[in-house]
Write a structure and sequence with these properties.
The protein is α/β, with parallel strands linked by helices. It folds into two domains: 264 residues, Alpha-Beta Barrel (TIM Barrel), CATH 3.20.20.210; 57 residues. The strands form three sheets. It has a seven-stranded mixed β-sheet with strand order 2-1-11-10-9-8-7, with helices on both faces. Helix 12 links the parallel strand 8 and strand 9. Helix 8 packs parallel to helix 10 and helix 10 runs parallel beside helix 11. It is globular.
């Protein structure tokens, strides 16, 4: 009886992404800056009402492994349960991300990760005159606690996932971000000035070992799963990686070119594809440098706290500059903004991802090329409400609006629509 229940659950789970083959074909074309039959679009929504909490967990970051580094069974139990309550639409391809925090490679070199305040902290203060010896002494073998752990959980996860979902790479980190776990920002900058050769040597050691870890992990994943993925969660049939260097925000353009750009170029030349995670306005001065990297496939621009969100009109000139350089774009944005993005940017190489609260709201928002309403009704309702001098839609307001539009909707749809229109009022944009 127990085996029968397990088989029934497995069969159901394999069916939650029925159009996965078509999605993969579109993603293969996307990486090559081509379009198969329509633009690429990734979206999610809870497939069962009342399961918003589980749905939001799969959209966010699961810290199970950060709290319990060997708890891969618990982590996958949770992922599979949440995935069962999630509809993966368009080019969203289910993938489990083993999250140990950004820059877990630092642990391979002896840092003890500390999980605190919903993130992982990496720090092992080391003097500049001792850092090279420490990094060189590290061996990637079964005696290395964190290296052995990552391979073990990756293999377990890949075997369990099989053809049901993909296993992503853990967030290995950026070269200088990893080095900062040892030297700290002040010592890195001082060493760049006083003895730049130390930084060069450390970067070479870290990059070499990071790439070895990546290859070993992907070798394991490919034995059981189809494709490659990273923490950025964009599926590829070939080997790719998200690139990053948060530390670059502390550097001037000259030192960026001297100490960061060579590492990025080396990584792009190593992988089949790569996407740079451009995090925060302090990285905008380096945009031309990113675009000058021949083998860089694309960019994800994350404006950061206090800035207009991804996809906003303020960033369209920046997006167009990226596209003009022949690079792909990855944009995570609110449902209200999706159609605006597609109307203002080239569809080739454009990957937009969003989530919807319910299936009903999904139908109101989906782009026309997927049979949706492009958000027109919700946008018209919001503008109509603003013209009334109001900032919140009441039930009687909705009734009046529907009468004006000659729309007849059942109570369930009206309830979802009322909530969504009020939610959209929080997004201060004019599309």
């Amino acid at each position: 009886m127990k085996n029968l229940i397990k088989f029934a659950f497995t069969t159901y789970f394999m069916d939650f992404k029925e159009d996965i083959d078509e999605a993969k074909e579109r993603m293969k074309a996307w990486w090559d800056h081509e379009i198969v039959d329509r633009p690429v679009f990734s979206y999610f929504y809870p497939s069962k009402r009342g399961k918003m909490g589980a749905f939001l967990d799969i959209m966010g970051e699961d810290w199970t492994l950060a709290r319990n580094p060997d708890g891969i069974e618990e982590a996958l139990d949770g992922f599979e349960q949440r995935a069962g309550f999630t509809y993966f639409g368009g080019e969203s391809i289910p993938s489990y991300f083993p999250n140990y925090g950004p820059g877990i490679v630092a642990a391979f070199f002896g840092v003890n990760p500390i999980f605190k305040s919903s993130t992982v902290w990496f720090s092992r203060p080391t003097k500049p005159n001792e850092i090279v010896e420490l990094l060189e002494s590290v061996k990637l073998n079964q005696n290395n606690e964190w290296y052995a752990r990552l391979l073990k959980i990756t293999e377990y996860a890949a075997k369990r996932a099989g053809n049901r979902y993909l296993i992503s790479h853990s967030d290995l980190g950026g070269v200088l971000d990893i080095l900062s776990s040892f030297l700290g920002p002040t010592n890195i900058i001082l060493t760049m000035k006083r003895d730049p050769q130390i930084i060069d040597t450390c970067s070479a050691i870290i990059l070499e070992k990071l790439l070895k870890v990546y290859d070993k992990m992907q070798d394991v994943i490919e034995k059981h799963c189809d494709g490659c993925n990273g923490w950025l969660n964009v599926w590829s049939s070939k080997r790719w990686a998200p690139l990053q260097c948060d530390f670059s925000a502390m550097l001037n353009p000259k030192w960026f070119k001297r100490f960061v750009l060579p590492n990025l170029i080396a990584e792009t030349e190593y992988f089949d594809h790569s996407i740079y995670h451009m995090d925060g306005p302090n990285q905008i001065p380096y945009l031309d440098d990113f675009l000058s990297i021949p083998n860089l496939t694309g960019i994800q621009w994350v404006p950061g706290a206090g800035e207009p969100p991804m996809g906003s009109p303020e960033w369209i000139p920046l997006y167009k500059k990226i596209q003009a350089a022949g690079k792909n774009l990855v944009i995570d944005t609110a449902p209200e903004i999706v159609s605006y993005v597609y109307k203002n940017l080239n569809h080739k190489g454009l990957y937009v991802r969003t989530f919807y609260r319910t299936e009903i709201i999904k139908d109101f928002y989906l782009p026309r090329f997927l049979g949706g309403e492009d958000g027109i009704i919700i946008n018209e309702a919001r503008i109509w409400l603003e013209n009334q001098g109001k900032n919140k839609l009441l039930k009687e307001d909705l009734e009046e609006f529907l009468r004006l539009k000659k729309l007849e909707l059942n109570n369930r749809v009206r309830k979802d629509l009322l909530k969504e229109i009020n939610s959209s009022m929080m997004v201060k944009q004019n599309f």
